[in-house]
Amino acid sequence: MISRKQWFELFVGLLLFCVLFQAVSAFAAPRTRGAQARPRQTEATPATPKNMTMFGSLSAPFLLDAKAALLIDAKTGALLYAFNEHEQMQPASLAKLVTFYLALEALQTGRIKLDTPVIISEQAWRLSMDSTVSRMFLRVGQSVSIQDLLYGLMVSSGNDAAVALAEHLSGSPDGFTEKMNEKAKELGLTESHFGNPDGLPVPGQYTTASDMAILARAILERFPDAVTYTGLKEFTFQKIKQPNFNSLLFHDARVDGLKTGHVREAGYHLVATASEGEMRLIAAVLGTPNAEKRRIETGKLLAWGFRTFATVSLDWPRDVAETLPVYGGDADQVAIAPAVTPRVTVLKGQEKKLGVTATFSSQYLVAPVAKDATVGDLTVTTEGNALATIPIKAQAAVGPGGFFKRMIDRIRLAF
């Protein structure tokens, strides 16, 4: 049996050990609990030769009859094809994509509901009476639901619908246009400026194929149900049936959006999206000579993308644990996972050459650990070359343990 004197000597010994351990820890460089975000190097985007992709030096086997074009993988952001993608031109009805985004955002945040009634103003009605523009045929004083206005905006391409939504959301088209440009800046549309909610040509209004692809991707990422509106082939309102201006919907079952546009000085535009298996593509084709060419050239670009590339989702490495030990905490370990599903775009046939490796800033963590703290990186490689790096995050918070738990774990770490 241990005497009181022996208990006292043991306690003093442990206390001295803790003091010495603290001194050594303070003198040594501490380990971080998670890898710091690495600054990304940025370079000016190089000029892209016409008919060239940004996927290595691969060339597409065709030349598009358009002023500008861009093709991206919507899930990875990989740039697959580009020419003149930064050339500015009038957006025409592509501006309605920003109007669409703001309306969907208001729905998502609860500012409006699909059945919210909107009273049609004289200004919106006048556009409905203008036979030179697209319209959904609204009547002054009429009560129309937000849902019908969204269909009228994206299927019928109604300028009257755009103005009605703008007035309801911001009080006036001018006030709404300010919100459009604020949102464009927030989304990174650095090559665009909008002059109204419907895209009717005005001085100082412009966009690019690059910005339209960025916008389309933002819509699809934040509002996956957006294709409910953009993929509808026809819409009937007040017994008037109108087909979707995006005629590609009628020729390719993979296509489910997004928006057409046309203005005399710029030509015929189409920002389209389509999905096949794991892959979703976004094509922005601007400035084709007519509506038929718009469909053909965009369809050609999408078909080539599906034929040439593959989107691959990768699993967590089998030889790596999905937890990290935690010392000094109220839990002994914490679950870890990549911040997003590891996905990359590769040329078809290269899928089996992909590998995944995990690296950690430390083999253990010391409490406290914050939820979503970065603890390492997951790197997707092919033949030794890194294709993508995704941060690995702690999936839960771990608070500090009690005094004796922390003391015992310090002793464990020392040995």
Give a short summary of the structure.
By secondary structure, this protein is of the alpha+beta class. It is 31% helix and 25% strand. Strand 11 and strand 12 (333-338) form a beta hairpin.
Topology readout:
Elements: H1 4-27, E1 68-73, E2 79-83, H2 96-108, E3 117-119, H3 122-128, E4 143-145, H4 146-154, H5 159-170, H6 173-187, H7 209-222, H8 227-230, E5 234-237, E6 240-243, E7 255-263, E8 267-276, E9 279-288, H9 291-308, E10 309-313, E11 323-327, E12 333-338, E13 343-347, E14 354-360, E15 365-366, E16 374-382, E17 385-394, H10 403-414
Parallel strand pairs: 11-15
Antiparallel strand pairs: 1-2, 1-9, 3-4, 5-6, 7-8, 8-9, 10-13, 11-12, 12-17, 14-16, 16-17
Query: What is the number of beta strands?
Result: 17
Helix content: 25-40%
Q: Can you tell me the CATH superfamily of the largest domain?
A: DD-peptidase/beta-lactamase superfamily
3D shape: globular
CATH level 1 name of the largest domain: Alpha Beta
Which segments are poorly predicted (pLDDT under 50) over 5 or more consecutive residues? 4-52
Q: What string gives the helices and strands in order?
A: HEEHEHEHHHHHEEEEEHEEEEEEEEH
Largest sheet: 6 strands, mixed
Radius of gyration: 28 Å
Mean pLDDT: 88
Under the CATH scheme, the architecture of the largest domain is 3-Layer(aba) Sandwich
CATH topology of the largest domain: Beta-lactamase
Q: What is the tally of helical segments?
A: 10
In which order are the strands of the major sheet placed? Answer: 14-16-17-12-11-15
Measured distance between first and last alpha carbons: 28 Å
Structural class: alpha+beta
Q: How many domain units?
A: 2
Range of strand content: 15-25%
